[in-house]
Design a protein that fits this description.
This protein has about 60 residues and is mainly β. It has one domain (about 1-45). Helices cover about 5% and strands about 40% of the residues. It has one helix at about 15; strands spanning about 1-5, 10, 25-30, 35-45. Strands 1-2-4-3 form a four-stranded mixed β-sheet. The longest helix has 4 residues, at about 15.
């Protein structure tokens, strides 16, 4: 699941997002506006720094 200030989106591949839980990330993919499901192509850190690693937890 991806939550913004006013919307919640489901991810088609939640397992890809699990290692990034709690971090600010950029998600690349395609949004189906009818279902609010994002088909995930890539997930990466928004900005590396303290508390926001450049790589997910292993």
């Amino acid at each position: 699941m991806l939550q913004t200030r006013d919307k919640v989106y489901k991810l088609d591949a939640q397992v890809l997002a699990e290692p990034w839980a709690g971090h600010k990330v950029k998600i690349a993919g395609m949004l189906d506006p009818k279902t609010n499901v994002i088909t995930v192509e890539k997930i990466e850190a928004e900005a590396a720094g303290p508390g926001n690693p450049s790589k997910p937890h292993s």
